[in-house]
From TrEMBL:
Organism of origin: Pleomorphomonas carboxyditropha
Region (Disordered): 94-130
Domain HTH rpiR-type: 14-90
Bias kind Low complexity: ranges: 94-114
PROSITE patterns: HTH_RPIR
Protein name per the record: HTH rpiR-type domain-containing protein
Pfam families, A to Z: HTH_6
GO molecular function, a single term: DNA binding
InterPro entries assigned to the protein according to its UniProt record, in alphabetical order: Homeodomain-like_sf, HTH_RpiR, RpiR-like, WH-like_DNA-bd_sf
Length: 130
């Protein structure tokens, strides 16, 4: 199996997902199990050893090594580092840890017109009563 050059390795989970999509036709049934588990459980991947991943997928550790090598990684540790890096980046965003994503508003609830007045149809949501 050919290995990718280091500079061509994915640097983010999104890049890894694209790489796996491009190479999906080359996966065996067993390596596909590993691929599916990988993206169904990215938080676990940061901590799983190759043995634990193999057990979780119901495959051998050799299958895990073949999967990682097929993607172009020289070691399982290099592969796992992508998931660890993602967790570190999330941890640097305190707001991501304080509230679950569903609790965060997607956009401000009140938009002001250029002159500072409320656009027609928007009520005061500050909780003040009349």
């Amino acid at each position: 199996m050919p290995c990718l050059e280091d500079e061509n390795l994915p640097r983010t989970l999104l890049e890894l997902k694209y790489l796996m999509a491009r190479k999906a036709n080359g996966l065996t049934k067993r390596t596909e199990k590993v691929a599916r588990f990988t993206f169904a459980n990215p938080g676990d991947m940061a901590f799983y050893s190759e043995t634990r991943l193999a057990r979780a997928c119901g495959v051998s550790t050799s299958t895990v090594y073949r999967f990682v090598s097929f993607l172009g990684f020289k070691s399982y540790e290099t592969f796992r580092e992508l998931f660890r890096k993602e967790l570190r980046e999330i941890a640097r965003r305190p707001s991501a840890l304080r509230e679950p994503p569903a609790a965060r508003p997607a956009a401000p609830s009140v938009r002001l017109a250029p002159n500072g007045a409320r656009p027609a149809g928007q009520s005061d949501t500050s909780g003040s009563s009349m």
